[in-house]
Batch of 2 targets.
Target 1
Amino acid sequence: MQVRQNLPLRSLTTFGVAGTSARTLTLERLEQLDALIEALAGSLPFILGGGSNVLFARDLHEPLVLVRLKGRRLLDDGGATILLEVGAGEGWDDTVSYTLSQGWFGLENLSLIPGLAGGAPWQNIGAYGVEAAELIETVQAVHTGTGERRTFSTADCDFGYRSSFFKTADGRRWLITSVRLRLSREPHPRIAYGEIQQELAARAALAAPEVSDESADPTGQPAGSPSPQQVAAAVRSIRRRKLPDPASLGNAGSFFKNPIVSRDDAEPLRVAYPKAPVYPVPDAAHVKLSAAWLIESAGWKGFRDGDAGVSAQHALVLVNHGNATGPQLLALARRIQQSVHDRFGIALEPEPVIVA
Ligand code: EPU
């Protein structure tokens, strides 16, 4: 197992902020687990995958574990569904593309999400009407204090909106080694999300003059029903259009969760701003508000203070224009929270993990 002292943090997260990790251990193979547990000697490590949902606002004194466990294994392909085990260190989007190329469906709406596969259960990634929790069968993890290895059912994972057991204080003791995904051989396109419908319609309109028998959908879907590949392509183009690419502009995707508030608490906002988006949630007594709308309406979209800013493309994304520090981005996040609270009485909760 590779152990490095005083490693710069900048290239380890998609925010690209500077910092130093005193001691970094890189886990590449399951056979290294015993050595890892021994090296940690009971101390609580910070576990990092692709670093796409983390803001480091200080140096790391605790051990940093980089999870780079690779490998994909087909465990069950007997029927209408398959079970695929994916190492926590596999790229998430690579995994989505791989499954589509194999004719295993379900992940298409989760295309182009940055990060590694271990992050999918960790924060229950979600986009365009689908959450990872719906596709996950089990999560394999190891306790970093005792070395116990355990398989977590979806009930154990306690998935919620961008949350899971692994994000809790007890859960942070567990290092996810792999995730098992239950995928379908039959396409079941999930296109209820309005933006996907618009994108598919626009693409169909563009393609219409060339439609012929030869270009019929190879998955055998009835006319009018998009293939999973078409859904994935639509999601990719929506994301490319709306979200800044972390490879060229540091960011961690949505910086705040969409607030879920009681209907009573949402009422003053609805009355004062009839255009404010309000979405239903399964619990009928509550609704989900749009953090992006709140932030844009408070005047922050495109704001920049030094190299810390708010994306001009999407108000929910904080960006590092180059040399913003973690504390500067955190200070900006606090100003936005205060301003949204003063203006609308709504509390915004950060989505990424903040190490401060
Ligand atoms: N909006 C604005 N200003 C903006 C952008 C959006 O007012 O600059 C409003 C619009 O009314 C828009 C609404 O916000 O209709 C919703 O915007 P969008 O569809 O982009 O979705 P979101 O709620 O901002 C969530 C997730 C994203 C996910 C998309 C699509 C959270 C915190 N974010 O964003 O996830 O890709 O839905 O499903 O739930 C992430 O978690 O990092 C992430 C990017």
Target 2
Amino acid sequence: MQTIKKYVEANTQRFLDELVELLRFPSVSADPKYKGDVQKAAEYVAQKLRDAGADNVEICPTAGHPIVYGEKIIDPAKPTVLVYGHYDVQPPDPLELWETPPFEPTIRDGKIFARGACDDKGQFYMHVKAFELMQATDTLACNIKFMIEGEEEVGSDNLGIFVKANKQRLAADVVLISDTAMISLETPSLETGLRGLSYLEVEVTGPNRDLHSGVYGGAVANPITILAKMIASLHDENNHITIPGFYDDVVELDAAEREALNAAPFDESEYKSDLGIKALWGEKGYTTIERTGIRPTLELNGIWGGYIGEGAKTVLPSKAQAKISMRLVPNQDSDKITKLFTDHFKRIAPEYISVKVTPHHGGQPAVTPTDSTAYRAAEKAIEEAFGKKPIPTRGGGSIPIVSLFENELGLKTVLMGFGLDSDNLHSPNEKYDIANYLKGIETIPLFHKYFAELSQQ
Ligand code: BES
Ligand code: MN
Ligand code: MN
């Protein structure tokens, strides 16, 4: 621990400078206009892996954005850790709400503000620096493989193909990912599950053209009104989702498991005041921790139709549209839920309109074991670095590729995230606390150390 601390202290400024450089690349995977910047970010990551001492570093092309691979095999008899992360980021919009520009990283109050600061550049880069540290201090305890992709934020379709085609190269004992959150530096935690996702777009069409709302209004159903009613009907008065069969496969936790989950510290009034809301909303019978961790949800991500420009235009629009996502919990299947939604939405459509449902990407939920060698190694590493044992929690977000690692590579994952829920992921003013970044770099070598030690026993 002393060696680690000394190395981090001696190199703190450079660790920050390099992260700032990485954050300057607008590697937005969703928008084709950034394709060149995504490529440049991949090249930067590859170079830093080489500089840190990785072998066989390669920028692997895909049908979309490239995957950066690199490895250090010290001894085939030692366990192997496969580090996964993503160098792509979400679009920075709405730009006007950023205090400083998203791709001009700025340090304020000990936090680094930029798109991707926490999700996931700041987090995967801790592994690159921890690897550098272990190489430089000759303390590498496990073999290490890096797979850093550029399409996580758009569904990881090409990573799935890469994984299936490279099973030998990716052979390992565990997947280690820092792309989730912990409660706080004072209350460290480890996420032990991720929700799945089913994402769709719906389009409701009424009359064959936009109409004068005075001439036709009142006689022809307005697609926006109909869509709004259809959407409103998807939750009942207890905020349960009304799609028949939606909850059929949901794994219910027993009383003891729920109690353990709810033992994590949670301050409801702080939560509300941070978000500027007076009351919380959600499925009846469940706490906020449960609603965001172990229960499935249905959310509207966007809704539009008709006239949304300056001033007033009297129009009865021909179409209304919405983007809808459902977060899924263990045992629910993304494809099955997509079909249940589609069938239901078409069934509830009144005859005044027609409905089109288009699925986007999906992902399966995942749970990670808490009784594995790797989990215990993560627990010990955090306990040593933070002075406290981490609490197991369930994360609300999704990393669809985790279930694929299990199915294709037979590997379990450890979600050792150092972000905070308040890091503004996918939102303006995304940030990552420098303290979390440095603490992560200190903790990761301990994981490798304890994973090697515990694997031998
Ligand atoms: N890192 C996040 C997922 C996450 C965030 C997990 C916070 C746990 C806590 C990841 O980059 C992400 O944003 N995933 C998307 C899904 C993807 C298919 C676009 C998500 O959760 O919306
Ligand atoms: Mn992420
Ligand atoms: Mn993300």
